[in-house]
Amino acid sequence: QSGQAQIKVVLLGDSGVGKSSLVLRFVADNFKIDSDSTVGASYMGKSLQFNDKTIKFNIWDTAGQERYHSLAKMYYRDAQAAIITYDITKRESFEGLKRYYRELQEFGPKDIVINIAGNKEDLVETEAVPPEEAKEFASSIGAIYRKTSAKTNYGVEQMFRDIAAKVLPD
Ligand code: GTP
Ligand code: MG
């Protein structure tokens, strides 16, 4: 099959978990220690080559700060995939992830593909959520779980490849 398929992906998760950093790494192969907290939401596009086809990701990076929470719905309601991110060194961000999941279940598209990113893998020495627990939660909701690091680029492109394989299987 030729031509360009497009996938709308939304990033959700608490403030500071590294959503914007993951997008910056994936789209521009860059990382900022002093990344600004997102206001509202921001868009970035990026294409990846898969054997004989090109897939364009239309990525919506939402703001994790509580005051923007109600905006997220505008971005996930017509998305094909969501990456719910937590910071592996912050237990409360894992609880935040579950909250985003429940919200997606209630208000999101029925067939949305969900991936869980345990970000900041480079800080694994201070990991606060046992990876088995995260994996178990992910499998209980049919989500792919992957550790990532926007800082080192660990697992980042692979996460988007996982999404494409699930959204557009051939
Ligand atoms: P909001 O926009 O407020 O929702 O936050 P966000 O989830 O977009 O977080 P952001 O990408 O702005 O990153 C927050 C902080 O974590 C920044 O200081 C980043 O440099 C840092 N950070 C992001 N990803 C990583 C990572 O993989 N490893 C480490 N060590 N730091 C990271
Ligand atoms: Mg951000």
Q: What key attributes describe this structure?
A:
binds magnesium ion; alpha/beta; 28% strand; 170 residues
Output the strand order for the largest sheet. Answer: 2-3-1-4-5-6
Number of helices: 5
Tell me which ligands are bound.
guanosine-5'-triphosphate, magnesium ion
| Measured distance between first and last alpha carbons | 9 Å
What would you note in describing this structure?
The chain has a 6-stranded mixed β-sheet with strand order 2-3-1-4-5-6, sandwiched between helices. It is globular, with a radius of gyration of 15 Å. The chain has 170 residues and is an alpha/beta fold. The protein has helices at residues 19-28, 72-76, 91-107, 131-140, 156-167; strands at 4-12, 41-50, 53-62, 81-87, 113-119, 144-147. Residues 19-20, 37-38, 61 line the site of magnesium ion. One of its GO terms (molecular function) is GTPase activity. Keywords: Nucleotide-binding.
Concise synopsis of the structure shown:
With 170 residues, the chain is α/β, with parallel strands linked by helices. The chain has five helices and six strands.
SSE diagram, text form:
Blueprint: E1 4-12, H1 19-28, E2 41-50, E3 53-62, H2 72-76, E4 81-87, H3 91-107, E5 113-119, H4 131-140, E6 144-147, H5 156-167
Parallel strand pairs: 1-3, 1-4, 4-5, 5-6
Antiparallel strand pairs: 2-3
Residues 19-20, 37-38, 61 line the site of magnesium ion.
